[in-house]
Design goal:
The protein is α/β, with parallel strands linked by helices and 408 residues long. It is 44% helix and 19% strand. The strands form three sheets. It has a seven-stranded mixed β-sheet, with helices on both faces.
Length: 408
């Protein structure tokens, strides 16, 4: 019906034009509105553009710096895809929601094939719908918020999400610590922590066949009586404690427990990385035995690409330079986007390129061998780090298919 109305409207307009201006006017009208074929925007076939959607200024700029260095290092090593040069197009999202919207539009208008970033989940989500509407795939490096991939079929990531960290922690607790019962200590308003805890519980119950193997102690994040919360933990007599909160919160709990004479096996999420930097001058012996899930370890051999990344980083920034998790993940985000282009075709765009990224499989990367899951999240090995003598080192690797053969 709408098509009929449109045809009638066009013919009516044409008739009016003919009546008012004669054949010349009608011919012009026809050329402009009837015979005109829609044209696709011209695509530059001489270059492939990848957008760098990051905060170059503002509060998040320092956090984004290593992620950008990782992207740029990957680009320096692999500046071509199938012989076509890759151009990085930068758009500063200014560490703000408004800036993210402006930066996203800049990248869309620039004709990028895909986008890398941003380092802050809030900034990523602010522009997510825009990239999806423009059918531009994006690969986040360090965004762990589940909504990044859950709400957008065009968004992917290379970091480990909270749910997978919870499952990995359970495997480590059961296999290495050798415990079949534990406590979870988490803030009542911590949604991310709850996601990890749910997966931890599910995996522990699968491994132990015991629905009571995990007990959760929730506390008010505004409660300054850490001693009281630690006493409640100790009263349950379970020595293994999973702590999904921040490094700063964990530091308070671990110190308080140590001073009170309690000995817990603490394990946390990737948020616990770098705890020794909270108070660099302190005696860090209280951290000994604390474990956490990690995306990357500079000393681990995670894939054939790990050494390539590490050597290139030292060549660029000095022999004593140690790359961070963010740098390694930025490097991998670039590799995944380029691999997607190889899968789909150098000049593929939209849904075709999205499929190319979705079907990235067994890709050697700095943080491990990456296969992209159906949900847009990576499937790869997870490292468990453990503090000893004030620094952390790898003690366990959890395979993506860990435990599947144990199912009855």
């Amino acid at each position: 019906m709408n098509q009929i109305k449109r045809i009638v409207s066009v013919l009516a307009a044409a008739a009016m034009a003919l009546a008012l201006g004669g054949c010349t006017t009608y011919d012009n009208f026809r050329a402009a509105f009837i015979d005109k074929e829609p044209k696709e925007p011209a695509v530059d076939q001489t270059v492939v553009k990848l957008g760098v959607f990051e905060p170059l200024t503002g509060d998040d700029a320092e956090t984004a710096a290593d992620e950008i260095k990782g992207i740029e290092l990957a680009h320096a090593l692999y500046p071509f895809v199938e012989g076509i040069p890759i151009e990085l197009v930068y758009a500063d999202n200014k560490s703000s929601v408004d800036g993210a919207v402006e930066a996203a539009q800049t990248l869309i208008d620039s004709g990028v094939s895909a986008v890398l970033g941003s380092c802050n989940s809030v900034l990523t989500l602010a522009a997510s719908d825009m990239f999806e509407e423009a059918e531009i795939p994006a690969v986040a490096a360090t965004c762990k918020n589940p909504l990044v991939t859950q709400t957008n079929d065009y968004y992917f990531r290379v970091c480990i999400v909270e749910a997978y960290q919870g499952k990995s922690a359970a495997d480590y607790i059961y296999d290495v610590i050798g415990k079949d019962a534990l406590m979870v200590c988490q803030a009542a308003d911590d949604d991310y922590g709850s996601t990890m805890t749910d997966q931890l519980k599910a995996e522990m119950e699968r491994l132990t066949r015991n629905p009571d193997c995990v007990k959760v102690l929730e506390y008010d994040s505004a409660d300054e009586n850490i001693q009281g919360i630690v006493e409640r933990l100790a009263s349950n007599r379970r020595k293994t404690v999973f702590f999904p909160g921040s490094a700063e919160a964990a530091d308070k709990f671990i110190k308080t427990a140590k001073e009170a004479g309690y000995s817990f096996d603490w394990i946390g999420s990737s948020l616990l990385a770098g705890m020794e930097q909270i108070d660099p001058e302190a005696d860090h012996s209280y951290l000994n035995g604390v474990s956490y899930i990690a995306d990357y370890d500079p000393g681990a051999e995670l894939s054939s690409m790990t050494d390539v990344f590490r050597d290139a980083w030292k060549a660029e920034y000095g022999e004593d330079a140690t790359p961070s998790d963010a740098a390694a993940l930025g490097f991998d985000a670039y590799l995944v986007a380029v691999e997607g282009l190889k899968n789909a075709g150098v000049h593929a765009r939209g849904w075709e390129l999205r499929k190319g990224i979705r079907f990235v499989s067994a890709l050697p990367a700095a943080t491990g061998v990456i296969t992209m899951g159906v949900d847009g999240d990576p499937i790869k090995d997870v490292i468990v780090m453990k503090y000893s003598d004030g620094s952390a080192s790898p003690v366990y690797t959890v395979s993506p298919d860990r435990g599947e053969s144990e199912e009855e």
